């Protein structure tokens, strides 16, 4: 009953899929214990939002990123609304697990492990299975979903797991990865991916600052007009700077069979 109400609200707010996982069914070896985030946590509510095909299938990474930022804004606001609804309606605690940031930047994980692994949460909530690209493939939207979640004290049962192996092992994602980050099966080489997918990330910033600090004053003036600096400046207020979408975009699963509304058919 509570699942139906929450699913309906999630879909009305614009999610494309909504799934539920009892906390015992969420297993992610490298992630923190969810009880450290919410001692009384009993379940996860996982929401998926489809990528916009026109933005994912363009060669312009700026277009892909600016459209993705829309999904992040929508999902963040929706998580707030849903958390408030759950607390008002059921008198239990609820909290948002955001799309990506903020991340724990302390060692040993240094910003590479989320508070909740949304891929493992999506699998536990019956929304999909891992593919060769280490992303979650959903039966309807394929790889083309991004996820958020809520931690709640509501005791909810897990939705049935997806049992089909949706990845056909075609190898396209591996071939298309410009960084070679997917060469080893079952593992994304984070550093290789980061260098290509976040060229204005923390690694570049540190490299740039080192160069700047060591340069004579005349060169420093030039370095402030360097496109690298301008990109870093832009990234500092965007706060999110993925510039590679190849693995998610190239996977053929979910490219066809599109529906452009979440109001028809299962699961939303
Ligand atoms: C940090 C992070 C990154 C880092 C590190 C990735 C990593 N190794 O986990 C970097 C910057 C490299 C990255 C890249 C990308 N990311 Co990212 N990222 C995250 C974030 C914030 C945390 C992930 C985390 O906690 N990882 C640490 C632990 C949980 O991973 P792990 O246990 O070591 O698992 C790894 C492997 O062991 C393997 N794995 C684990 N279990 C199993 C089981 C099976 C059967 C298989 C085959 C594999 C497998 O998959 C993981 C990848 O290395 C999540 C959001 C979130 N809160 O979950 C988004 C998230 C995972 N990213 C996402 C996306 C889309 C991307 C990119 C496509 C970039 C982009 N343009 O959006 C690439 C894809 C890289 C790839 N193919 O793996 C999506 C995935 C959506 C989906 N459909 O699955 C997420 C969930 C964001 C979201 N809100 O939707 N990401
Ligand atoms: S985001 Fe780009 S660099 Fe990273 S794994 Fe996917 S295709 Fe490779
Ligand atoms: S591109 Fe092919 S190998 Fe890669 S995840 Fe999709 S179906 Fe699997």
Write out key terms for the chains shown.
single chain; 268 residues; alpha+beta; NADH Oxidase; 2 domains; two-stranded antiparallel sheet; 10 helices; globular; binds cobalamin; binds iron/sulfur cluster
Quick recap:
This protein is of the alpha+beta class. The chain has helices at 2-13, 53-56, 61-90, 118-124, 172-176, 190-197, 202-214, 217-223, 227-238, 246-250; strands at 17-22, 43-50, 94-97, 129-130, 136-137, 145-152.
Ligand types:
cobalamin, iron/sulfur cluster
User: How far apart, in Å, are the first and last alpha carbons?
Assistant: 15 Å
CATH domain fold name of the largest domain: NADH Oxidase
CATH class of the largest domain: Alpha Beta
**Chain-averaged pLDDT:** 93
